[in-house]
Automatic annotation (TrEMBL):
The modification N6-(pyridoxal phosphate)lysine is found at K295. One of its GO terms (biological process) is amino acid metabolic process. The keyword Lyase applies. GO terms for molecular function: aromatic-L-amino-acid decarboxylase activity; diaminobutyrate decarboxylase activity; pyridoxal phosphate binding. Its EC number is 4.1.1.86. Keywords: Decarboxylase, Lyase, Pyridoxal phosphate. Its cofactor is pyridoxal 5'-phosphate. It is an enzyme of class 4 (lyase). This is L-2,4-diaminobutyrate decarboxylase.
Length: 462
């Protein structure tokens, strides 16, 4: 059994160290990320000794946790401008703490009635914001890749109802722009379509779907003897943060009987910002939508929603029998809608952030991050040597400095530890890429970054 007194003391250590970690990160004092090789990290953390001997005490745990946090990546740091992972708000962190102790895997209602009820209400809220209202269905999954797979399972069930039992017909195709997230192509392979069944859609120079060319794409699919299982649009694209014309794509799909899937993993949270809702105009036409909470809803990862306009479509995604599990009351158990059985209490993270901040507060966060990215674009355009290929629509900005090796420039910037950026190709040309995630990122951060990049480029002759 637990030694409850020992737990309370260890929990106090955890809170103290995490509070200091977040406070220091938000003030930008330590490096934004650790970059030691694994062998050195393992030695510093004493992993082999702890695994072999055990015996960790409160003080040993404090030393371990402090070193563990120091060797990681600080999402709360103002210079964290890297991957699309949230700087979690503390209510979501509390939810992880609760789940870690209670451990209610609530895909089966009797294993976590409160967690399942919270998830259902959170999904009802998300369905309403997406325009799916009372007719839609949803489930939370462990991440956007699994959410995309689940949504496409529903699309496959609609196109080929017997695929679950008889196997996948060889004539199905998935239409998607080249800018679509890699998980869509991976899902096509997992679903049995194969990568060659993914038909690229015509796009403009920035990777956005060219709606006027959709009839040509559909004709190519049919001439090849295939039928479209689904057509995917970005809201927004992972690399650029740009949104596809959802209304134009949705109206085309409705007119031609094609399943319309929107990958809104990153950008669907703009539905909460009155100033940015227009970016998702037409999302209500989608047959399925995914929406990650661990990006712009500030939960820890992973927590992603799969939403369908018709509830029955999601229920048709899986056709499973297991007498030891599938006997609960319909409408209560979520296991029939998801790959996972031992599913974490994901809804609690979203709910507690909503309960503390409200829908308005989360919408203001989205608006602020989008505005900060736009501010960077404004500042960069005024600086010599900087080039931005587009005006940002979200909190993602791609840019270049000079004509040198942008990947090498990013590496030098990351080595210094004050900033963490990624990079992406646009039209075959490598660009630096920043994603404004941390609330601590401000004008001072942006100007410091714009000052530092030319210095590093000049020193190396880049």
């Amino acid at each position: 059994m637990w030694n409850v007194e020992e737990f309370v003391r260890a929990a106090g250590v955890t809170v103290d160290e995490l509070a200091a970690y977040v406070d220091g990160s938000q003030r930008g004092v330590p490096p934004v990320l650790g970059r030691r090789p694994p062998r050195e990290v393992a030695e510093r953390l004493g992993l082999a000794r702890w695994i072999r001997d055990g015996g960790m005490t409160e003080e040993g745990y404090r030393e371990f946790l402090r070193a563990y946090l120091a060797e990681g990546t600080r999402q709360h740091h103002p210079g964290y401008l890297g991957h699309q992972i949230a700087a979690p708000d503390f209510p979501a962190a509390l939810a992880d703490f609760v789940h870690g102790a209670a451990n209610n895997p609530m895909a089966i209602y009797e294993m976590g009635a409160s967690a399942a009820t919270v998830e259902s209400e959170v999904l009802r809220w998300m369905l309403g914001r997406a325009g799916f209202g009372e007719t839609g269905g949803g489930v939370l999954t462990h991440g956007g890749s699994l959410a995309n797979l689940t949504a496409l399972l529903a699309a496959r069930a609609a196109a080929a109802p017997d695929a679950w039992t008889d196997g996948v017909p060889g004539d199905l195709a998935l239409l998607a722009p080249a800018s679509a997230h890699y998980s869509l192509t991976r899902a096509a392979a997992v679903l049995g379509l194969g990568e060659r069944a993914v038909v690229p859609l015509d796009a403009d120079g920035l990777g956005r779907i060219d709606v006027t060319r959709l009839p040509d794409a559909l004709e190519r699919v049919r001439r090849a003897g295939r039928r479209p299982m689904a057509l995917v649009a970005n809201a927004c694209a992972t690399a650029t943060g740009l949104y596809d014309d959802l209304r134009g794509v949705g109206e085309f799909c409705a007119a031609h009987g094609v399943w319309f899937h929107v990958d809104g993993a990153h950008g669907a949270s703009a539905l909460l910002s009155p100033a940015h809702r227009h970016l998702l105009d037409g999302v209500e036409l989608a047959d399925s939508l995914i929406w990650d909470a661990h990006k712009m809803l500030r939960t820890s990862g992973p927590a992603a929603a799969v939403l369908t306009r018709r509830e029955g479509d999601l229920d048709a995604a899986f056709r499973q029998r297991a007498s030891y599990l599938f006997y609960g009351e319909p409408g209560l158990d979520l296991i029939g809608r998801t790959v996972e059985c031992s599913k974490a209490e994901l809804g609690l993270k979203i709910f507690l952030n909503l309960a503390w901040r409200g829908e308005r507060g989360l919408g203001e966060y989205v608006a602020r991050q989008y505005a900060t990215a736009h501010r960077f674009w404004e500042l960069a355009r005024e600086r010599p040597g900087f080039a931005c290929p587009y005006e940002p629509e979200s909190n993602i900005v791609c840019f270049r400095y000079g004509d040198g090796d942008q990947a090498a420039l990013r590496e030098r910037l990351t080595e210094e530890g004050a900033f963490h950026l990624t990079s992406a190709e646009i039209g075959g040309v490598r660009h630096l890429r920043m994603t404004v995630m941390a609330p601590a990122t401000d004008d001072g951060t942006l100007k410091a970054l714009l000052d530092r990049i030319p210095d590093l480029a000049d020193r190396s002759g880049g």
